[in-house]
Amino acid sequence: MPRKYDTTRFAWALTGSGHDLEECLDLLMKLESVDVFLSRAVEEVLVMYKYIERLRAAGIRMFHDSTASAVPVGQFYENNYHTLVIAPATSNTVAKCVAGISDTLVTNVFAQAGKCQLPIIVYACDTEPVVITPAPGKMVTVYPREIDLECSRRIGQFEHTTLTTNMEELQAAVRHRVECLNESCS
Known about the structure:
With about 190 residues, this protein is an alpha/beta fold. The protein has helices at about 20-30, 40-50, 50-55, 75, 90-100, 105-115, 145-155, 165-185; strands spanning about 10-15, 35-40, 60-65, 85-90, 120-125, 130-135, 140, 160-165.
């Protein structure tokens, strides 16, 4: 049976994908209470796309992937979070999560949130055979491999995990969590 949490804080993990990154930032900044967990790769991407200042200006608390033992994950055991969102989630992060590898801040928060039975929402970038996505200054077409597609399918089968495959699904899943919190459902 999932645990209930008294807090109204989202944990939002960003990985190194530019796919719908601006839209994900817009969505997370609309939340009342959110902490952001940054992969090393996304820190580079945020600078490349000139988004890091948006997060800083919003006063959002950010955790960086800078410790070997991922110290910030201890907050999951203190019931500081009710929901983990990983959006956007690169194929690398998704594959590691599916394989049970927790060697980065983001994969570690995924594992710990799962162990704490928190609801998890994952917006996997590689869910279709052809993906048109932004790169700095242009749009590019990528062709996810079958292993990328399989890992995306598999992460949605984890307990307490909702897989979203586009921004509309992500927005609906986040909205559902907010509604649940307002109604005190799990």
